[in-house]
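Q: How would the structure tokens look for this protein?
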Amino acid sequence: MQIKPLSNRVVLKNVEAEETTKSGILLTGTAKEKPQMSEVVAIGPGEVRDGVLVPMTVKVGNKVITSKYSGTEVKIDGEEYIIVKEDDILAIVE
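A: Here is the predicted structure in token form.
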């Protein structure tokens, strides 16, 4: 099954959280924070403002940082995704 977002929505897949700290300490499952970095899997066509289509800034494959509790979590074919508005994306990581 494929997800095709509408308007200015973006489908994201979380990037795996680090299991060890930089100093080498192994983190347990409860010590890991919800990851805020995700990869863009699909984008909508953009938002129509004053009759003009405003194209999306992000592209499929970009790694992005989102607001901590933004979006709607969905599970499709055993994979977990988050659907957010483009406005909830704070930065593109290069």
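Residues 39 and 73 are 14 Å apart (CA to CA).

The mean pLDDT is 85.

Upvote if useful.
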